[in-house]
Write a sequence for this structure.
């Protein structure tokens, strides 16, 4: 899939998201994007992890880390809303205080991620967010700690859903697609990129 051209930054209110259909689910590819990342990717984002609605882990079984509003601009200026994939890394220091956060050890390595950039139409959000799901079971929360993300490709558009189960099913598919897409050498190279030197 190619990234639609209308930048998300121009959207001042939630666009009408199409409903997810059974035919869409059946037609989903296992791998997305070209063999190497193409413009506008890679896109680098970073910021202190914010408290969100708490729905990801509790309601959907997919905990997410929310980036601050100012971190969205670099991506929202060149892409549209939707689901994206790449890598993410939690840093040891809490930005505001300079203290060491609870997240330590292997939790601070780089891991595959999927990210939703948009309005979450199923929940009818009133502002655009960037919610990152890092594919790792973390020992502790890392609110306030810096999160760096490199976005390497686009998975699918933002959709609305008639049921929570349908949303969960698509989220699980998004994770599988991200992992398979990142297995290609040109994408895997970014795992050791240290996120563009943005430590």
């Amino acid at each position: 899939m190619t990234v639609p051209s209308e930048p998300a930054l121009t959207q001042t209110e939630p666009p009408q998201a199409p409903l997810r259909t059974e035919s869409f689910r059946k037609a989903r590819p296992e791998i997305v994007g070209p063999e190497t990342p193409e413009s506008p990717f890679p896109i680098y984002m970073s910021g202190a992890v914010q408290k969100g609605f708490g729905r990801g882990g509790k309601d959907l079984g997919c905990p997410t880390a929310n980036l601050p509003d100012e971190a969205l601009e670099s991506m929202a200026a060149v892409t549209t809303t939707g689901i994206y994939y790449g890598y993410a890394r939690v840093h040891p220091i809490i930005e505001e205080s300079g203290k060491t956060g609870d997240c330590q050890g292997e939790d601070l390595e780089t891991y595959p991620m999927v990210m939703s950039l948009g309005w979450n139409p199923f929940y009818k959000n009133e502002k655009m967010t960037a919610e990152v799901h890092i594919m790792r079971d973390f020992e502790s929360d890392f609110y306030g700690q810096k999160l760096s993300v490199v976005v390497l490709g686009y998975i699918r558009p933002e959709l609305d859903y008639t049921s929570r189960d349908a949303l969960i099913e698509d989220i699980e598919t998004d994770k599988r697609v991200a992992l398979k897409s990142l297995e290609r050498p040109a994408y895997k190279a970014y795992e050791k990129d240290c996120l563009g030197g943005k430590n």
In short: Residues 82 and 157 are 4 Å apart (CA to CA). The chain has five helices and six strands.
